[in-house]
Design brief:
homodimer, about 675 residues, mainly alpha, 3-stranded mixed sheet, 9 strands, about 5% strand, ion transport (chains A, B), ion channel (chains A, B), Cl-channel_core (chains A, B), chloride (chains A, B)
Chain lengths: ~675, ~675
């Protein structure tokens, strides 16, 4: 008896222990490291098989071409078909959807095991095809699903994981782990996921993300050591630049030029990507045909891309034989290509030899590579397979940076004189800076610099890289929304624009100016007929319940619609009489939220925005002396912000003040906000 | 006429442009870089003079001793006196106070130009004395003052800077710049300041901090290039470890041991520091004497410390001649001391030769250095001068790590065999890891790892360093609050404990369980007599104003006490009659907040905590159907959290669940929270 009680006590202790937060983090880290490593392994083997097949057929060029084109096409079509059949939610990057989910919006079927399977299989096939598709975005999605599923398992041990607040915490950590173990960059992973997904960030999640991401990256790198891919834990794309004098202050203008150009190029990339997506969504004969035959679009894109990169064909002028990772490794190498082009290749050149064409200048090859890969990446990432844009853009940035670096090396062939010593220019360093700047411009983040340090294992270029990334961000944020926000807008997902810094009007506009005054509500005397009418005329998920009809006192209860409907239908089947309809509601059967969010009329727009983005609200009720006077939903807020900042339908990035000032000075300022939308209820 | 209008338009445009946010950030960056560099320059010159004086007198040891002791004593006493006379708020680190201010509490006189002057002068003198005092904490304070003052200047151009919300944004950036340009570590600076000062962080401030800190660090490093201190922009404590094989997986246990030991040591440091402060605050004859003669305590501490470090005396056994920065440089060097001890010193050893004593083993010197500096640092940081603990702890951690590294090098004198190649152990790498782990343990942050990468310019040890920092944090957070929280508690500053992750009770406790139900309020019919009575019986700064006494409807107006008092006193002088007292209040003369924060009774503890920490509230009113039913202040929340988590009076770090579980399993769980305090109002 005593033994039984004791063992029960021990069991409970064990269960509580297993429900601990850090065990969740460790499990998440291990599982994601395994997934990441297996995917890398499988796609690397696939690429190896591809290269081997291609190499074996070198005696017959037409056959070689057939293999070069067919192999990726089969993989991409398989990925597309698999995703379409298993879970269409797995298509695309996943970061925009996660950003929306973390904002508090419920997107159905996005965090299921089905989506997990589709994403993992589709992504592995996509990466194994050698097409310019990225791993980072989908991996964030995969890690979030993993975190969500794991947290459900953990509820067995601890009830905490059921809370909706906790859900956000879990997904935030999932995102951090996703980026962190994708390339073994825990620190940059945490920062990138914060910048990309959050508006307000709980610092306790910083710690948790750091813990899980480090553990995950650690396991991920240890796995490759065990597999003899690496001798010890080092960076993925390790560089070997000289450290005693990494760069001279006189090179800074070149770095600044890279930053500014990358800003423009990044904005153009986002624009191009959106135009392709918008074109595909426009209803005409071609898109209807493509929608009916889903595999044709990815097949055609793959065919065109692979045909152009076919090494014996046009590919020889654009280093077409290089797979994305090989391209990065060669672009980050420590040679000066303008110097060795034409002469015998030095030892240790490796795959970089792909950049040398006997008749064509290195500059031309780099430029062609950049231009061709630019539109290829913008188009490839719109294919209906799981694919991110981070890695393709990273390759683009690296090639652009390298181009500038090689031009610098050609302009200063003897290096730069400082203090009597001639220091050679390192074009590889320019490539690293270009990669960070362009990814930063496309994603509107600055932590790409941190990811670059971790990927290359060298931090000596820290200051010029940060300057370039900041300049790229300034330009890109002034021109276009980030790639993820662009997708959110194109997909029409609910979002809340950023409040810019420095708009006095956000303190002068109050919630009473933007709220919808005609609120539909229920009271304790409401009949089923009224409820039916209410349900027909609104699409809201929650309805306020007030004390007495006359006084409109907020009773602060909310009805959950899905519950009412099912229960209402039941009622209908049971009793067909009309009389039943006039009976009052049985309120105790209804799911009620005892503390809905209340605002008062004089709450400023700034405060409202802060509360909405902090708490992930989708709507809030406005009360005056306890009386319900209005409701504010995400939509009203969105319109008010866009009205008050006068930036049309575009998101407000932190630096949009640049473009605002230009407009402000040309247009007279109006303090009244956009009229509130009445469409919420009528 | 047209020209005038045009130029006015241009002027307005210019004024708006100058009020732009990025101009504020650039100005802040430049000014802080100049301050940081000037302080470094002045303190370096002071140390140089100190060393020169000491060196010149080598023919006479007693005279040498006199200089060695007197020089720092004069500087420290000067710093102490200067701070006491100009601004006593400048004493200490400043980070605890800023954390409190960023929580929304108004601390008077902490962000004034006087405090700025006292802090800059006092800190320069302190750093120039060679005593183990740090620059990081005070520098955060300096930068925040600079940001606050600059924002006041900016209000001339743009009204936005007046808003109280904006104030938090400005101080957050100030903190980031402070850490960032202190050692030229922009990235680590931003992250460290987030971790140390915030609970919830607005991601838009991440961008702004990054921008300002990079700019500042850039100028800071460029200044030293212009001053010929450095050839180009590189790290402050640059290391030159081999990069091809930085460490072997078999060395990981040693790194883990460093992490765990640093956790314990860090917690002990915080404990020791608090005990010294508590002893100094205990009222007895000694402390009364010391309070009356303020200069005696710093003088005695300086005397004892310098006497013990006197190089020809005991200092020879603990490398006493090394100033803090020299110590770091030598501890991070690339030699293996156990190998070169006793033999002729190799070229390039430099200041590291201070660690070699002809008769005493290197281990003993390192151990003595660590033990002596440990208590010296803990005591020195309590002196009444501006002083941080970051740098002293960093030195301690480096020496501890180096000790472990040298032991490892002695255990494996031929290095570690891997794949047929023998890799030497790098003790300098252990020193870097130790430094990051110990500072992380003392401050409860993980971004010290990032600061280390930036300080050393090498990122090759990233994974072991992050593992060590995380382990150190796990241990330290389970044992003691962070140094800054410890100071907050000792100084009795208002604070809000962290809500731990994984306590289901935080969702089951509602605000109605913890609120104070007896609320004092005013109504429109209240007389001056009632107001006087109210003011006498409460110390609150704001008083709720309700509609009608009987119904207690919240009219959602707040009175600002300071305004009332001054205006009330005026009334008293004007009219001495008693009759005047019964007149009703003139409400339109009173400062009113039209949207105070309202909660409903069923708001969960978790939600309340989130709102309080997000919005920096100090109190919120609880309403039921519009009626005022209670008030919750920081104090109630604090007690409820400490009650519900059962961790006594200590703060809840993210990993405190470790110590909770142990207690939970031994004590039966009770779901009822601690009884609310009635002392707020009666």
């Amino acid at each position: 008896r005593v033994g039984c009680v004791l063992s029960l006590h021990h069991f409970q202790f064990l269960v509580t222990k297993l429900g601990e937060d850090w065990i969740f983090l460790v499990l998440l880290g291990i599982s994601m490291a395994l997934v990441s490593w297996s995917m890398d392994y499988a796609s690397a083997k696939s690429l190896q098989a591809y290269k081997w097949l291609y190499g074996e057929l070198s005696w017959n060029v037409p056959l070689q071409y057939l293999v070069w084109v067919t192999y990726p096409m089969i993989l991409i079509m398989f990925a597309s078909l698999f995703c379409h059949l298993v879970a269409p939610q797995a298509i695309g990057s996943g970061i925009p959807e996660l950003k929306t989910i973390l904002r508090g919006v419920v997107l159905k079927e996005y965090l299921t095991l089905k989506a997990f399977a589709a994403k993992v299989v589709g992504l592995t096939a996509g990466l194994g095809s050698g097409m310019p598709v990225g791993k980072e975005g989908p991996f964030v999605h995969i890690a979030s699903i993993c975190a969500a599923v794991l947290s459900k398992v953990m509820t067995f041990f601890s009830g905490v994981y059921q809370s909706p607040y906790c859900y956000t915490d879990i997904l935030t950590v999932g995102c951090a782990v996703g980026v962190g173990c994708c390339f073994g960059t825990p620190l940059g992973g945490v920062l990138f996921s914060i910048e990309v997904t959050s508006t307000y960030f709980a610092v306790r999640n910083y710690w948790r993300g750091y813990f899980a991401a480090t553990f995950s990256a650690f396991i991920f790198r240890v796995l490759s050591v065990f597999n003899k891919d690496a001798v010890t834990i080092t960076a993925l794309f390790r560089t070997k630049f000289r450290m005693d004098f990494p760069f001279d202050l006189q090179e800074l203008p070149a770095f600044a030029i890279i930053g500014i150009s990358c800003g423009f190029l990044g904005a153009f990339f986002v624009y191009l990507n959106r135009q392709v997506v918008l074109f595909m969504r426009k209803p005409n004969a071609l898109t209807r045909f493509l929608t009916r035959h889903r595999l044709i679009f990815p097949a055609v894109v793959t065919f065109v891309v692979t045909t152009l990169t076919f090494p014996p064909g046009f590919g020889q002028f654009m280093a077409g034989e290089l797979m994305p990772r090989e391209a990065i490794n060669s672009l980050f190498d420590n040679f000066t290509w303008t110097k060795i082009w034409g002469s015998a290749s030095p030892p240790g050149l490796g795959r970089s030899s792909a950049w040398f064409h006997p008749d064509v200048n290195v500059f031309i090859v780099l430029l062609l590579f950049f231009i061709m890969k630019f539109w290829m990446s913008a188009v490839s990432t719109t294919m209906p397979i799981p694919s991110g844009a981070f890695m393709p853009v990273f390759v683009l940035g690296a090639s652009f940076g390298r181009l500038v670096g090689e031009i610098m090396a050609a302009l200063f062939p003897h290096g730069i004189l400082f203090d009597g010593i001639l220091y050679q220019i390192i074009p590889g360093g320019y490539a690293v800076i270009g990669a960070a700047a362009l990814t930063g411009a496309v994603t509107h983040t600055v932590s790409t610099a941190v990811i670059c340090f971790e990927l290359t294992g060298q931090i000596s270029h820290i200051l010029p890289m940060m300057v370039a990334v900041i300049l790229a961000n300034m330009v890109a944020q002034g021109l276009q929304p980030s790639l993820y926000d662009s997708i959110i807008q194109v997909k029409k997902l609910p979002y809340l624009p950023e409040l810019g810094f420095g708009h006095i009007s956000q303190y002068n506009i109050f919630v009473e100016d933007i709220m919808v005054r005609k609120v539909k509500f229920l009271c304790s005397q409401s009949t089923y007929r009224e409820l039916l009418y209410l349900l027909d005329s609104t699409s809201l998920k929650t309805i306020p319940l007030v004390d007495s009809k006359g006084e409109m006192l907020v009773f602060t209860f909310l009805l959950h619609l899905h519950k009412i409907i099912s229960w209402y239908c039941l009622k209908q089947i049971k009793s067909w009489e009309e009389a039943e309809m006039d009976k009052p509601l049985e309120l105790d059967q209804i799911r009620i939220d005892p503390s809905p969010f209340q605002l008062v009329e004089r709450t400023s727009l700034h405060k409202t925005h802060t509360l909405f983005s902090l708490l992930g609200l989708s709507q809030a009720y406005v009360t005056s002396i306890g009386k319900l006077v209005g409701v504010v939903a995400l939509k009203e807020l969105q319109k008010a912000i866009e009205g008050s900042t006068r930036s049309g339908v575009r998101l407000r990035p932190p630096l949009a003040s640049f473009r605002d000032t230009i407009r402000k000075s040309s247009k007279p300022s109006k303090t009244s906000p956009a009229p509130s939308s009445p469409e919420l209820l009528e």
